[in-house]
Amino acid sequence: MRLRNLVDNIDYIELVNLDDLSAEAMGISYNSKKTQPDDIFVCLTGEHVDGHEYAEEAVANGACVCVVERRLNLDAPQIVVSDTTEMIAKIADLFYCSPSQKLNLIGVTGTNGKTTVTHLIQKLYEENQKPCALIGTLGHKFSSDDSYHDAKHTTPQAPELQKLFYNINEKEIKNVVMEVSSHALAQHRVDYCDFNGAVLTNLTQDHLDFHITMNNYFKAKAILFDRLVSGDFAVINADDEYAGRFMEVVSPNVNLFTYGIKMPADLRAKDIVFEHTGASFTCVYQAKEYPVKLKMNGMFSVYNVLAALTAGVAVGMDIEKSIKILENLGGVAGRFEIVVNKPTVIVDYAHTPDGLENVLKAARDITPSDGKLICIFGCGGDRDATKRPKMGTIAEDYADKVIVTSDNPRSEDPQQIITDILAGFRSVNDVVVEPDRELAIREACKIAKPNDVVLVAGKGHEDYQILANETIHFDDREKVREIFGA
């Protein structure tokens, strides 16, 4: 992209040392160490790092221009703008020629369930002979048979995201389903993404270290629905506490669909039964009833399937065919994944109060009457500390035995995190505290009997543990198989 095209299409305050507008920009970067010759270097101001301090290094590495929020004492071309965080999304969209406008793009947002719902929707498209790419927590895939391509964030930063859309177009894939995090919405990573539909799973406490209040958290999620235009669709969980507020955000010209169990909705589930092999229920749509028998388990799985079915209805898929497709699917890696039998050991990503409560309820549903439910969990460091005692209370309420351990303590003292969790217990006399996560799993193995159910919560698919400044390999599923002898 020529710099002339850039300056003609963005709002800027001033141009500094920008004498040659015919120069060609070959890429976009915001990490000076990764800057390549002729890149546009965007100085992002983050929570911990100010990109303006690294502009000189970026220029030394070949950046052809720096996009800044203030004129720098640097003998290099500069474009001064009011907000580089907002501008990087505009630049990325321009550089890759607005690739999302050529795609049928569905965004899935919510505190829990995003990963599973995106995978279910991808499968619905593919079984209807419509190729569909997926972008989310586990990485991105160009098809369900593709392996995951690693991602640093649930929703990539704007340059990576727009480049990915460009690559998807190059592969002649026209459908994309994407997890959209609240951070991505608040940090403008998905600005200029042309969404055709949006799906809400739920909104419960998480990320308050970043958003501070639940109202701010809601406002970030609501951006996705506010940007929908005439002809787009919105799918909302009618049972969610914030459902009404999300519906108010949706324009009257947008096609609105709801799903639920407790509240009136376009798609509803009733007569729900949980067995060790999976959940079954009756789906009610347009006064007709459809039996559904899943290989997935837990009330959250019923909600996830309803969300996917409703999205399918919204884009014109046949509901009976959609049900048959979803009935054949197992779960997603690290989402209520039964890793070992006798005792039943489940690994799940639950790391919020609502998420932990949901998986504990699901685990309780499949715990035999003569068995006990054992829960191993911890809370991440450098994250919302207010949820720690709440998760302690939930674990005590739903599990027969609780083992409190570490979960990515990061820069915090693991013992302090555990102390915060224990504050939520009415009594800690019967709680096992073991900061070493591997030893915590070994402790569960010692006490678990064949009919017991063990839930290892918090990390799910993750294969690492962040300890202070060190990241080590640690996969709950590997450890469970090794320790329980699967």
CATH top level of the largest domain?
Answer: Alpha Beta
Please state the overall shape, judged from the principal axes of the Cα atoms: globular
Q: Report the uncertain regions.
A: none
Strand content: 15-25%
The main sheet comes to: 10 strands, mixed
Could you give the order of strands across the largest sheet? Answer: 8-7-9-6-10-11-12-13-14-15
Examine the secondary-structure arrangement and name the CATH architecture of the largest domain.
Answer: 3-Layer(aba) Sandwich
**Which fold name corresponds to the CATH topology of the largest domain?**
UDP-N-acetylmuramoyl-L-alanine:D-glutamate ligase
Oligomer: single chain
**Count of separate structural domains:** 3
What is the averaged pLDDT score? Answer: 94
Count of runs of 4 or more consecutive helical residues: 16
The proportion of residues forming helix, as a percent range, comes to: 25-40%
Structural class by SSE content: alpha/beta
